[in-house]
Write a structure and sequence with these properties.
Elements (H helix, E strand, L loop, with lengths): L2 H22 L1 H9 L21 H6 L13 E6 L9 E5 H17 L7 E4 L7 H13 L2 E3 L6 H10 L4 E4 L1 H13 L11 E4 L6 H11 L2 E8 L4 E7 L6 E3 L4 E6 L13 E7 L10 E7 L1 E2 L11 E2 L4 E2 L4 E3 L2 E3 L1 H11 L2 E12 L2 E10 L1 H4 L3 H19 L4 E5 L14 E3 H5 L1
Parallel strand pairs: 3-4, 3-5, 5-6, 6-7, 18-21, 19-20
Antiparallel strand pairs: 1-2, 7-8, 8-9, 9-14, 10-11, 11-12, 12-15, 13-14, 16-17, 18-19
Helix pairs in contact: 1-2, 4-5, 7-8, 8-9, 9-11
Length: 425
């Protein structure tokens, strides 16, 4: 679709969405009235700037169904976030929402080269988390065979991957790396398996981690993006060009803003991704603050797709560590560690406070080969990593090497930070 035609479609759907939430959701009616805005004031796409932001806390404050725009007799499924910091964020889906979601995931699988003859192993968690069921319905919409194994039970994952002839794997990138390591340790030669692609998301990951996964599993590793509040996985997806994820712009309007001022930034500038749903019936959201850091690019992709591309998320504004006034994302550290190729891609950022000063120590796991090397080699590598991190983050850190397989592996989202400052109050 041309950008001009897409803009027409987006405006038509945005106007319909604003009218719907104004009429059906008291929270939005009050928020729009407070700004002196009525649905008829949205005359162009640029008018989206007039609309209020929506925050995760707004979903919690209106728990469970306060932001729903459809009556409960039209809601056929409920999903929710983990709620680790309070009440979960509840999302309701109508029959049409589920159908649209399945279409989006099917598109994503096509971008990974998927088709009806594929066997897709869905190792995202099933349940209230959106990953498993979201991917599942998309595989079925595509007409491929789904293996609904969910997360965990790694030995069984590897057995079924071999026995069922899995061609596409869908899970978190950290779990894909764990599966690759466990498979290699078990003597599996991934080059002899039919698996050829991975659809990985639900956590930030780096280009270097992609290379690690691709080398170990002999596959093409692609990034899928989504979040429960907006839909789930399938908001955007990388194609084989690996030059950013194509946002499904016929369902979402994407903006990037300055996270401090809320000002909309031009294409090509990094900031916080903001998404407005324009086809959701159950719980439409206006200008949802994702807290994810990204960049938007509108140029037509090498693959021919015209939807705007978002750069892979580098971190979250609320996952960001501030060490001595410097913003630090775990993915920045990961990228540095993987540059050297002499350690395992497993690490932990340990933050502590010595007196009034924050202290960052990075635990880095050694490979089996490195562990048997001389102490002098450790010292040289430690100095190189420390110097490189200083140049990237502009702070001095401590590097602590730990034995192979010391840092806990994850079957879901990898835990990358241990913040001891919180424990001390």
């Amino acid at each position: 679709m041309s950008r001009d035609r897409l803009a027409e479609l987006q405006l038509e759907r945005l106007q319909k969405t604003v009218k719907k939430v104004y009429q059906s959701v008291p929270f939005y009616k009050n928020a729009l009235k407070a700004r002196g805005i009525e649905p008829g004031d949205i005359k162009s796409l640029d008018d989206i700037k007039k609309l209020p932001f929506t925050y995760k806390q707004d979903l919690r404050d209106n728990y469970p169904y306060g932001l729903f725009a459809a009556p409960m007799d039209k809601i056929i499924r409920l999903h929710a976030s983990s709620g680790t910091t309070g009440k979960p964020s509840v999302v309701g889906y109508t029959k049409q929402d589920i159908s649209n979601w399945a279409d989006m995931i099917a598109r994503c699988l096509v971008m990974a080269g998927g088709g009806k003859n594929d066997v897709v192993q869905v190792a995202y968690g099933y349940g209230l988390f959106t990953g498993g069921l979201g991917a599942h319905y998309g595989v079925e919409r595509l007409g491929a065979a789904v293996v609904p194994i969910s997360g965990g039970n790694t030995a069984r994952q590897l057995m079924l991957m071999k026995d069922f002839g899995t061609t596409i794997l869908a899970c978190t990138p950290s779990y894909a790396l764990f599966l690759a390591e466990e498979g290699i340790n078990a003597g599996i030669d991934f080059k002899k398996l039919p698996i050829r692609a991975g659809v990985f998301g639900a956590e930030p990951w780096t280009e270097n981690m992609r290379k690690q996964i691709e080398a170990k599993m002999d596959i093409t590793a692609l990034d899928i993006y989504g979040l429960s509040e907006v839909m789930g996985p399938g908001v955007s997806m990388e194609c084989m060009a690996k030059n950013g994820s194509h946002i499904n712009e016929d369902h979402f309007i994407a903006e990037v803003i300055d996270p401090d001022t809320g000002e909309v930034l031009p294409y090509g500038q990094q900031g916080e991704l903001v998404l407005t749903t324009i086809t959701k019936e159950g719980i439409p959201l206006l200008r949802y603050r994702t807290r994810d850091i990204s960049t938007l690019h509108p140029e037509v992709c090498a693959c021919g797709r015209t939807h705007v591309r978002m750069k892979r998320v580098t971190g979250r504004t609320d996952d960001m560590l501030i060490i001595r006034g410097v913003n630090v994302f775990p993915s920045q550290v990961e990228s540095v560690l993987l540059e050297f190729g002499e350690t395992e891609p497993h690490y932990l950022l340990v933050v502590d406070r010595k007196g009034d000063l924050d202290d960052l120590e990075i635990w880095v796991e050694l490979s089996e080969k490195m562990f048997s090397d001389e102490v002098k080699h450790f010292e040289t590598l430690e100095a190189k990593i420390r110097h490189r991190i200083l140049s990237v983050l502009n702070i001095n850190v401590k590097i602590k090497f730990v034995e192979p397989r010391t840092i806990p592996r994850s079957e879901g989202k990898a835990k990358r930070v241990m913040d001891r400052r919180e424990l001390k109050g």
